[in-house]
Amino acid sequence: MIVDETNIRPALNSRIVDVSSFFTRLKDSPLHQTRVAMVGTFVPRKCGIATFGNDIFEKLGQFHPGIQVDVYALDDPQNPLEYQDIAGTIACDDPQSYLTAARRINESGVGAVWLQHEYGIFGGPDGEMVCDFVDRIAAPLILTPHTVLTEPSERQRAILEHLVARASRIMVMSRHSCELLVKHYGAPREILQIIPHGAPDRPFGRSETFKERMGLSGKNVLMTFGLLSPGKGLERVIEAMPEIVARHPDTVYRIVGATHPNLVAKEGEAYRERLQALAAEVGVADQVLWDNRFVETDGLLDQLEACDIYVTPYFNLQQSTSGTLSYAVALGKAVVSTPYLHARELLAGDAGRLIEPDSAPAIAAAVNALLDDREELLALQRRAYAKGRQTIWPRFADGAAALIETAIAPDGRPAPITATPGLSGVFAMSDRTGILQHGIGVVPDRRHGYCVDDNARALMLMNVAAGLPDQERARWSLTYASFVQHAWNEDLKAFRNFMSFERTWCEDCGSEDSNGRTLWALGHTVENAPDEDLRDWALRWFETALPHCASFGSPRTIAFIMLGAAAVLRTLPRHRASADMLNQGGEVLSRLLEKERRPDWAWFEAVLGYDNPRLSQALIEAGLVLNRLDFAEAGLETLEWIAEQQVAASGHFRPIGSESFGKPHSYLPFDQQPLEAQAAIEAARAAYGATGDKRWVDHATAAWKWFFGANDRGVILGDLTTGRSRDGINPRGANENCGAESILAFQLAHYSMLALSQAQRRESVGDNIGSRGRSEQSVANP
């Protein structure tokens, strides 16, 4: 019998449970907020990166209160700490904790993620767990690598190269690190920003006041601060002290700071005890003063104010940052230092004294020269103070705020639905053979030839493209149809896919998906081609190929064929082969869904791939033309689930990335491709036809806006003038190439949006889309 489809919509609306929290996000959330998630160690952990992260948190809050920083602190589950004012913790050695944190960050809707990287703070060998973490971050990634090695191990290089490849912006604190990243790690210079380590802004020349507070009046005070560990060269200063004291007896050397926790865990205080023994051995035990504790920032600044000469005798000349050096310079202290990277840059312009490394005599000579000439000592301190004005916290906060704002994707431009995209981009990719697959930029790339996938899509576009003269439409329709026809391999009863530019086939049989997509295009042509002869041609080839598809097992292939069969049935309601195909395909997808379903996974497979919404769309369309409520319900339920995965917390469309392929029960945000946005729009159009629910129009609109900048990188992909689209979005922005698949996805998405808009207008004046002409287009359930 013929079924009146108007009965299915009330049934669906009464039986489908609304679990679509993503609809609320679409409606109520702004595209981006000035919020950033910061990942790294954090206070009260006693390490330099924790202090640096706290400085970012506090100084942005103080000088740029419009920027909110959500801290995700790396924590050691064996020695957990109590944190305040943070968004969450990440167990540093637990892979699942990184995945959970990435999901929470994505769901929070932050505009960017600022990663503080050091090899020793993340889990796995050399901290490689950070790689899986950043792969799952959708917001733009700001990277601050605190160590950029000149001669890294193979794994260390791979880790930093991976982070660099994912970063939208990279902040470094030295020019040397900047150059290393460009020359050795592949960082584009345009995404690098140098922001010197921040420093306090205190008045100059108060050392005597603070000496008095600390019982040091009348002393020449040398000082080194930081977590004690071998490599900092403190031995050389102690060895230099006898010569300094012999000339200036009132000199003391203050070593302020606790022993590094990792060293304590390994050998206790043995290193400090060796230093103390050395001081006694060379006769300066009374002149070397110890403050064995981790000093908070304000206390550290007071300690620094009480010194005359700050000494950093580090052995490691590759050290690119030293927060305490920045503090000392900003407070106007004379600095004597070995020429490690940060010291060379910060002390340039005679703002300090650089000395030969690993040399006690060099230290003694530099210190004695300054103590001998008090006017020069004061002049050096003033030069250091003037240099430090460039790095005080307000300047650092301004740089950090600018870094964040340039990383955060801007709001998308308006996305016109009714403006018809031009077709010059489509025809520029086409010749007398068909449409070429790929482009380099906007220029067709002949090296990769043609494929039946793209020519099938191009034929579908010619079926619906507006504004084409009949002669031109016929010319291109026949070109693409001829390619499809020539792709048929009569011996194997299947379509080939790839053809070289020299017009030779690269294979005897194409993939299941390419065959399924070709059948879909043939069904689409039966339903939509303006030319009757072309419709007859398409039906003939559809009926030729359909019987040979029974063995295909790919869920997407089944969905593509079902979409073609549904199109044929809407035109020829008694086309028995199409009805059989829809029933069989719907049963297969329904069984797959029940097999793979989990409480948090309402999907047909354990993995997500490309064109995901097509599986749901196929079930919805099958349910409508067959009056199979179970198919339509399953299609709507799964479409709601996949749509929820593809909407960001801030409300914009975020398609499942192609990097997700093959990852069970997981998905990644990049690379994002136009094909997925098109599929979301066309599946939403089918859902709207089944339910009349305007929220599906909202979802389709969000996917359409993705082409116009409402996306994770704020990049414009679609060009209405030429009708081209960029090939997608990677972590740094747009893939500038314009291939046939992307161009055609953009074009076909427009016409689906236009049809959806027209359907909505009909609804608003009482013309029920569910009954429009479909009573005569329905088919009995055999």
Features:
782 residues; alpha/beta; Glycosyltransferase; Rossmann fold; 3 domains; 6-stranded parallel sheet; elongated; disordered N terminus; Glycosyltransferase family 4 protein; Glyco_trans_1
What does this structure look like?
The protein starts with 7 loop residues before the first helix and ends in an 18-residue tail after the last helix. The protein has 29 helices and 22 strands. It has 782 residues and is an alpha/beta fold. The strands form 6 sheets. The chain has a 7-stranded parallel beta sheet with strand order 3-2-1-4-5-6-7, with helices on both faces. A 6-stranded parallel beta sheet has the order 10-9-8-11-12-13, sandwiched between helices. A 3-stranded antiparallel beta sheet has the order 14-15-18. This is Glycosyltransferase family 4 protein. Residues 215-385 form the Glycosyl transferase family domain.
Question: What is this entry, summarized?
Answer:
48% of the residues lie in helices and 12% in strands. It is of the alpha/beta class and 782 residues long. The longest helix has 25 residues, at 740-764.
